[in-house]
Amino acid sequence: MSSPNMEVFQAAVLLFFFLVSKSGSEIFPLKSLGFDSFLTCLVEGGINPTDVVPRSDSEAYQTLNFQWQQKPPARIPAAYVVVRTENDVMEVVRCGRKLNVHLVPRGGAHSFEKFSFGQENSVVVDVKKLRTLSINQSAMAATVGAGWLVGPLTWALWEQGQSFTSLGICPSVGISGLATGGGYGYFHRQFGLTIDNILEMDVVTATGELMTVNRENNSDLFWALRGGVGSSFGIVTSFVLRIHRAPPAVFRGNLTFHVSQLEEVFTSWQSLVRTGNRSVTPFLTVRKGNIELAIVDWTGTEGNFNQLVDDFPPYDSRNGEVFIYPDFIESYAGKESPWLSMCVAIKQTKSVKFA
Q: How far apart are CA 166 and CA 187, in angstroms?
């Protein structure tokens, strides 16, 4: 006789297949990939069947598979699994390994090359629900779930601890890809890249084992996860990041030049990057016939900006403003931010502050 729990499980699986068959195109040309067995394995491991979204024209799949990049062509993975706990990640990896299912981890879905969307036979492991946050003020460290985006995490660090860490410039980028790939941002000349601020990681390896890695424990894996191929070694579920006291104010200034001045401007910019005050982070952009030099100074004063202006050729326009720190966050992570033109993925949402 089957147990009540097994009957509930069987009913859940049957209901899931019924709903999917009614919601869109057929579940997979995936029967050949053993998807039925894969789903059964996941549900037996404790994953809610509604968190497994197979390829179809359903709203759930189309939302998960939104791709802001127009090129290269859209990728249509076989399914998504939305993980909510470390145990979910472990079960997905164990089932994928057991049944030879190709798994691709995904954080913010910002990959220009669309690597985080896998291929048509891939199952994408979406970690966006892993948004835990714990701040240790005495150690100046924050334990951060792998599902955070840069903008919301920046706000949360400020609101919960008046602190920050070295993150990226685009608020809609996921922390996982940023942290395992490098991570340059507004304050990296003073505080290092994001990878320089990682103290520890929890990662699910290809065997489905959860491991803690740092400079003392599993140091080789800790080294390998920081530098561009992190997803080749496992799925990171959380980071311990070094945090810093948020400055009272931040200065942001801009200079605009004509594109014909590129050689002079570029030479001056290189000199500034090499020898300039480390509190100043300069960003150089060429677009629409103009050169735009954006300066961020975490000391919150205009003095450094005024000095460096003399080292550049004559400019077409100049502006600058001092922001108290939360207003600075709003200036690049809020829905009215002019800086969001650099972050095409923000088209998905009105404001990443509340994402």
A: 6
**Which H or E run includes 19?**
helix 4-23
Q: Which of 22-26, 155-159, 235-239 is predicted least confidently?
A: 22-26
Residue 260 main-chain phi, psi, to 5 deg? -65, -15
27 secondary structure, DSSP code:
S
Domain with CATH 3.30.465.10 in the chain: 4-126, 133-245
Q: Which amino acid is at 323?
A: F
Lowest-confidence range among 30-34, 204-208, 252-256, 337-341? Answer: 337-341
Q: Which residue has the tokens 């050729």?
A: 313
* pLDDT mean over 195-219: 96
Query: Burial letters for 174-196: b for 16+ Cβ neighbours within 10 Å, e otherwise?
Result: bbbbbbbbbbbbbbbbbbbbbbe
Please give the backbone phi and psi of residue 73, each rounded to the nearest 5 degrees, phi first: -55, 155
Supply the angle between the helices 86-99 and 35-44 in degrees, to the nearest 10.
150
Coil, helix or strand at residue 339: helix
CATH code for the structural domain at 133-245: 3.30.465.10
CA angle 234, 163, 129 (to 5 degrees): 40
Q: Determine contact, residues 103/232, Cβ cutoff 8 Å.
A: no
The type of residue at 209 is E
Any bridge partners for residue 251, and if so which?
297, 322
Give the H or E element holding residue 286. strand 280-287
Q: Provide the CATH topology of domain 4-126.
A: 3.30.465
Determine the pLDDT at residue 340: 52
- One-letter identity of residue 76: I
Q: Which residue has the tokens 């340059």?
A: 184
How far lies 253's CA from each of 162, 289, 306, 340, in Å? 24, 20, 10, 16
Cα torsion angle, 99, 17, 82, 89, sign: negative
Please give the CATH architecture assigned to the domain spanning 249-325. Answer: 2-Layer Sandwich (3.30)
Residue 322 phi, psi (nearest 5): -100, 125
